[in-house]
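At this stage, I wrote out one protein's amino acid sequence and its backbone structure tokens, and that material follows here:
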Amino acid sequence: MYEYDMKGEGERILLPDGWHLFQVADMQLGKSKAGNDMFIVTLDHPETGAAEDVYMITAKGKRWKLKGFLKACGVQEDEQGKFKFEPQDLVGLTVEGCNKQEPNEYTNREGEVIKEMRNNLTKFRATLEKATL
């Protein structure tokens, strides 16, 4: 028997600019194209059912998005300024993310240049609301 989790598969939904409620669906360590360690955080948008992947670099000087996300999840900074967390402990939490639509251009498999708008979650904040999917 085959089993696949298909949440977030299919057409992307362009969200309006502004703050949106999200549920943390997954958080995995990966590498950026430049070779930096990063977390790939998948956020589910309960109103649309869409999933957004947010790439959060862990390299010093580039981890501002990760720091804001961790604070929004309630992870506290210790006396030395360190954030200690386990990614699986953040799954299921609700955060608000600020979307800013931005242009995106890429070449598809047929060699065609595609120009479109995409979501860019730029900031995060804590919320008392609960995202229900």
Remarks:
- The chain has one domain: 18-125.
